TrEMBL record:
GO cellular component: plasma membrane
Swiss-Prot/TrEMBL keywords: Hydrolase, Membrane, Transferase, Transmembrane, Transmembrane helix
Organism listed in the record: Campylobacter concisus
Molecular-function GO term, any one: hydrolase activity
InterPro entries referenced in this protein's UniProt entry, alphabetically: Alkaline_phosphatase_core_sf, PEA_transferase, Sulfatase_N
Alphabetized SUPFAM superfamilies for the sequence: Alkaline phosphatase-like
Pfam families attached to this UniProt entry: Sulfatase (PF00884)
Residues spanning the membrane: 12-33, 53-70, 77-97, 123-144, 156-174
Protein name as it appears in the record: Sulfatase-like hydrolase/transferase
Lineage: superkingdom: Bacteria
Ranges where the Sulfatase N-terminal domain occurs: 224-507
Keyword Phosphoprotein attributed: no
Listed GO biological process terms: lipopolysaccharide core region biosynthetic process
């Protein structure tokens, strides 16, 4: 017999379910209702059935969540609640830092896996979002505990049986449908993404031996020493050498043997894709590389070896002797010396510790190719410069994340970082080396977003990423470089760095033109739109238009 008391309990359960439904859908910008719109569009029988199954699987997952929240007390309930708490926090954090997004994506999971060297910096940079997420999820736990006392309806067998069915069933639908998984509740979405990434090999990249390179240069190298420096998170339009209204590069502004190519477009909007593109000559037409074909193509070190250069790879970012950015032991076969820094603190001296090594290499009689990965201006920016070197204030406090409300202080902190880690680095480097027979190509792996475009996420967005995350500089350093070469401005991109290095090494135009234009020998007419890549290099990704100038 249905009593008034029992009816009120079920009514309260219904209201709680409604609140949960609205809450979890807010993390995906209410994408479930977009699916419902699709459901009511004209479809053939197969299309309608497909979408209906998709929505049904969503509802199955959702109701299983409700059953879990109202399980009987016990060890199983506590384990499941703890797992839900962790997964919910992950999704909320990504939602808070990317307000235009839909919570965490598979790309961001893969990115986090491959950039573990930056995990402490990420915790610091997004500490505000993490704290807010913990407060929200903590309040939710308290609310659930209180409501469970009022609703004396406790399930046991139903959620235990439904949980594996809902996870497996939703993954099968996700894997077979044309839709993504971001519409699903967090506890199903994240395991789906992890399993899909694992099953597609995105975690265990299928590294392979590089193809043998039989090509050799047709002429002598243009310089005895070629240095390629890839900095971290340096935004091209924030440099005063490129016209920024704050003097972030006072040394370079008056230095004679440097030319800026203006605002350039990065290859990707986070470190791994851009570094991979630069090292291997990967072009936009090669992406996404679902078959891992680019892992076998000759890398920049193979071309350097065939041009009789000694090869060096210097990385101040990673822990001692670690690899990152899709490098493997197969790449190390063509590197004569791999140099990392054992003593990691203070962070703002990491790049400075590379300078004695560079000086030693250049003092040899050999032809040298040096690829350098700088620590640069990675978040948190306040750790990238000594406090007594700060020029601009006020700045962010320790452990303070970037928010819309503190953007001015965030910019001050960032430009202080640029002055020390970029301009200050070159001031010290160029006072220790000669450019008589040396050229330096300098760029950054990606730009940075400083609480703009409706998001506080700094870089790495997969969908509709801000152009700021791909806005980088390209600078060239060499004696009398402005009299030797003529360059345009604001038309170049990362996709041109690899062929430009081959050009400097003496390779024929027919060789490097298979990749792209060279800065030094080609006139880029600007008929092609520059673009950058977002997403997983070896999985789902997107081509994003940067502007209408230059070459891809």
């Amino acid at each position: 017999m249905i009593t008034k008391k029992l009816l009120s309990k079920y009514l309260l359960l219904f209201l709680c379910s409604l609140v949960v439904f609205v809450g979890i859908n807010s993390l995906s910008n209410f994408a479930f209702f977009n699916i419902m719109d699709v459901l009511y569009q004209p479809h053939g029988p197969k299309g309608l059935l497909k979408v209906s199954i998709y929505v049904a699987s969503y509802l199955f997952v959702f109701f299983n969540l409700i059953f879990i929240l109202f399980m009987k007390n016990g060890a199983t309930f506590k384990i499941l609640i703890f797992a839900l708490f962790i997964l919910l926090n992950v999704d909320i954090v990504y939602y808070l830092i990317d307000k235009n997004g839909t919570g965490i994506s598979m790309h961001q999971i893969v990115l986090a896996y491959h950039e573990t060297s930056h995990i402490l910096g990420a915790f610091w940079a997004y500490s505000g979002a993490i704290i807010m997420s913990l407060l929200i999820s903590g309040a939710i736990l308290v609310a659930i505990k209180v409501i469970r006392k009022f609703i004396d309806i406790k399930f046991f067998y139903i959620p235990i049986i439904m949980l594996p069915i809902s996870l497996v069933g939703s993954y099968m639908v996700f894997n077979k449908s044309a839709y993504s998984a971001y519409e699903y509740p967090f506890y199903a979405k994240i395991p789906m993404y992890v399993y899909a990434a694992k099953s597609n090999g995105y975690f265990d990249i299928k590294f392979k031996a590089r193809d043998t390179l039989t090509i050799h240069p047709d002429s002598a190298a243009k310089y005895k020493n070629i240095i390629l420096i890839v900095d971290e998170s340096v935004r091209g339009d924030y440099l005063s050498i490129n016209g920024f209204n704050i003097q972030t590069t006072p040394f370079l502004d008056t230095y004679d043997n440097v030319v800026s190519l203006g605002i350039a477009s990065s290859g990707g909007n986070n470190s791994a894709p851009s570094q991979y593109i630069i090292r291997n000559g990967v072009q936009m037409r090669d992406l996404p590389d679902n078959k891992f074909a680019t892992l076998a193509i000759p890398n920049i070190f193979q071309y350097a070896k065939n041009a009789n250069f000694h090869t060096y790879y210097l990385d101040s970012q990673v822990e001692y002797q670690q690899l990152q950015n899709f490098m493997s032991s197969y790449d190390l076969e063509y590197i004569d010396e791999y140099f990392t820094i054992k003593e990691r603190k203070p962070f703002y001296y990491l790049d400075r510790k590379l300078i004695p090594k560079i000086k030693t290499i250049l003092s040899s009689n050999d032809h040298n190719f040096i690829y350098i990965v700088k620590y640069g201006s990675h978040v948190p920016w306040k750790m990238n410069y000594p406090e007594n070197s700060a020029t601009f204030s006020p700045v962010l406090e320790n452990m303070e994340s970037v928010e819309f409300s503190n953007r001015d202080r965030a910019i001050n902190t960032y430009v202080n970082s640029l002055r020390w880690s970029m301009d200050g680095f070159f001031k010290e480097l160029l006072s220790n080396i000669s450019l008589d027979d040396t050229i330096i190509i300098y760029t950054s792996d990606h730009g940075i977003n400083i609480a703009e475009s409706g998001t506080t996420m700094h870089y790495g967005m997969e969908l509709n990423p801000p152009k700021t995350t791909a806005t980088v500089p390209i600078l060239l350093f060499a004696k009398d470089i402005t009299s030797k070469y003529k360059f345009d401005k604001n038309i170049y991109s990362h996709f041109m760095i690899f062929p430009s290095v081959l050009d400097l090494m003496g390779y024929d135009k027919d060789v490097y033109h298979k990749y792209n234009y060279s800065f030094f020998s080609d006139s880029v007419s600007g008929e092609q739109a520059r673009s950058f890549y977002s997403g997983n290099v070896f999985g789902n990704g997107y081509k994003n238009v940067f502007d209408s100038k230059g070459a891809q």
